[in-house]
Amino acid sequence: MTLALTILIPSIIGLILQGTFIAVEHKEKYVPAVILKGTASVVFCILGYLGYSTHLLEGCDSSLPKFVFMGLLFGALGDILLNLRFVFEKIGQKIFLAGIAAFLTGHILYLIALIPLSDSLLISIICGVVVAAVILTIIFKSFELKPAFKIFGIVYIGAVVLMTAIAIGNCITSGFEKSSVIYAIGALLFTVSDVVLIFNTFGPTTKFSLRITNLTLYYFGQLFIASCLFFCR
Questions:
Q1: What is the pLDDT of residues 61-103, one digit of tens each?
Q2: How far apart are the first and last CA of the chain?
Q3: Whole-angstrom Cα distance, residue 119 to residue 24?
Q4: 87, 119, 143, 197, 230 from 93: Cα distances, Å
Q5: Per-residue pLDDT at 233 exceeds 70
Q6: Neighbours of 101 (CB within 10 A)
Q7: pLDDT per residue as tens digits for the range 48-72
Q8: Model pLDDT for residues 31-48, shown as the tens digit of each residue
Q9: Helix (H) or strand (E) run with residue 117 in it
Q10: What is the DSSP letter of 1?
């Protein structure tokens, strides 16, 4: 099987599952929605493993494939937890925070993968901190959040924006090397999807159009991050 098909076939399957999940969740069929979401997440983990396994076969000692794959696994766990909050509504907030914690762990693993490759780490961190501060300021001015959500928000948004800033920095300093470009696109999509999620979750009304936007951008982000493993050396 060619590299293009190896990436394309799981991606198409995953997108079909993700689209079906969105439709089923909108009908408030939350148990089958969790199953569909979990299955869609397994697909991007499989894609990541296929990319990771190419490095294992080549005897590559780079830590990036390993930590990116681990980050994908925690992303899948976060997906399942975020949707379980609709199944177990009484403890929905706790499950939501657990899901965010899983995603945060994934972003930390992505950071561990990216930082050793950074030739512009300080500049990237400064840019990331500034952008995160702007985003958090807008969020906190827009909504009244409980202290626990504020703390999680600061840590989580800080981590995801920092990860994206370093990914973009690596992309630039690498001369726009293919794997760095693919990763940076995935990280940027992930960040935008999270911002949309926050506004749609804590805003005055929940809009289905924003839910579609959040979930679609997120899934493409994970697919791009997983796909970058086929090109990094």
A1: 567 889 999 999 999 999 999 999 889 988 888 898 899 899 9
A2: 20
A3: 45
A4: 12, 40, 16, 15, 37
A5: no
A6: 17
A7: 999 998 876 665 556 788 999 999 9
A8: 999 999 999 999 999 999
A9: none
A10: -
| CA separation for the pair 228, 222 (Å, rounded) | 10
Q: Are 65 and 49 in contact (CB under 8 A)?
A: no
Token pair, residue 87, equals 């199944």
Tokens 């994934």, located at residue:
106
Nearest to 82 by CA among 215, 220, 210: 215
Closest CA to 183 of 74, 70, 68: 68
Q: Are 136 and 161 in contact (CB under 8 A)?
A: no
**CB neighbourhood size of 28 (10 A):** 8
* Tokens representing residue 120 in the block: 């512009």
* Total-model pTM: 0.92
Contact 173, 184 (CB under 8 A): no
Please give the pLDDT value at position 155: 87
